[in-house]
Amino acid sequence: MKQTATFIPTLRETPADADVKSHQLLLRGGFIRQNTSGIYSFLPLGKRVLQKVETIIREEMEAAGSVEVFLPALQQAELWQETGRWYSYGDELMRLTDRNDRAFALGATHEEVITSLLRDEIKSYKKLPLNLFQIQSKFRDEKRPRFGLLRGREFLMKDAYSFHATPESLDETYNVMMQAYTNIFTRLGLNFRAVIADSGAIGGKDNHEFMVLSEIGEDTIAYSDSSGYAANIEMAAVNVDYPKSDEAPKEMEKVATPDQKTIADVAAFLNTTPEKCIKTLVFKTDDDLVVVLARGDHDINDVKVKHATGAKIVELAAPEEVQELLNCEIGSLGPIGLPPAVRVYADNAVKAIVNGVVGANENGQHLANVTPGKDFSVDTYADLRFIQEGDPSPDGEGRIQFAKGIEVGHIFKLGTTYSVPMKATFLNDQGRAMPYIMGCYGIGVSRVMAAVAEQFQDDAGFTWPDVIAPYEIHIVPVNMKDEPQRELGEDLYKLLKSYRYEVLLDDRAERAGVKFADADLIGMPVRITVGKKASEGILEVKYRRTGETFEWKREELLDHLQQFFKK
Known about the structure:
It is an enzyme of class 6 (ligase). The protein is an alpha+beta fold. Helix content is about 25%, strand content about 30%.
């Protein structure tokens, strides 16, 4: 492609509203442009990168036995109502109505649509298992779109769905898909980990996220320093033995704690430690209010609260709800004197506290010398806190460390989460109607592009991996008005294209400094500069990632390029 014939609007200045380097460079390099918040146009270079990511995904999905389909983005509300997600998915689901006031959603995900399709078409176990995938746009009304392509309201996604007659069949496909995802992200050159994760609004049980390690990642990965264990911090189990203090329980007493709102404030005011304090929070679980307790130096994990309570939606209760329930402000909450109907859940560490401190459910008052079991009861003890750095690894090997990650893929064992409410059944080998057992497997294609852009860059611009660079070779004649340079540049362009290299020829009438800056910015693996030695047939070749430069004669070029690209 000649640069004058394509559309690469590079920018010299960094856009003020781009917070992370990948977003900045994608804008500056002319790969994308923002249409509105969280919605982007992909320009020619960006589209080429996307297509190459898609190609790798398609190759590995097909190798894993998955077959491509294309499902509608406009989904009727009735399907979502069958599973209850029309009401529970939340504000991220973009809802609309047609001219006849019939309700629809723009596809945030496709579990309902694919389940509806299969229940109408597959009636026998003999046609199972079946694994289908698609690549198409998804729509989610993100509250805070940010970081460019990493969190948008319209994005490109690969989602696959498998249907099975037995759990063993699902397990087998799950493992195959785990390997397919590993192959995809390895081929892309990404530094990633597969981590244990929460299923969120998708549902199901066993699942893994694929995380690209990055300091700008929104997720925290808890990993062992001595084994392969890794989990999203939301799902990392805490396996800690909490020895109970041998001190004798004392009589509970009320103490004034004026203007002491936080655990740290209260502990300092009472000359104790956060470990001796009990943190009390009120959560709204579906339509109920529950009290959750944790040690003062621990943070309550709402995902674990959701699992412990069996609720679909868990969120902190609003201050007015707490005021109505306990008649006090949040800074003075405690587990003593609660209304009888309120269930109390406590993290396992709370059970070991003797003579601790809790809120008195009176503003500016706390209770000292409080011991669980003596002064208040707990309905359920469970692992409810976030794991901390230095805690024992859940697999018993080593200690936990933290890293930041960008989620680029997620695989789920859905089981019968969708097939049961949607009455999607098949006849098993005994002629009995059974619900499909399902798996779900997603990759954020446009997010993968951003993750690669985040990992493959330097101060001058992108250093794209060969496999997804927009073009493999960038030919840069320094001066297009110089006849030897122009002729050699165009000769190389035709020659390399005939050998099936992907070539971009900078035939613009620009200054050499502009051309070189743009070449470094958009980051093709190889740059061939045609300069003053063009009349001698001598070229300067630069490898973008390493910065190495060479002078080669025209007749040497093909051999060197074949070695570089392993063609």
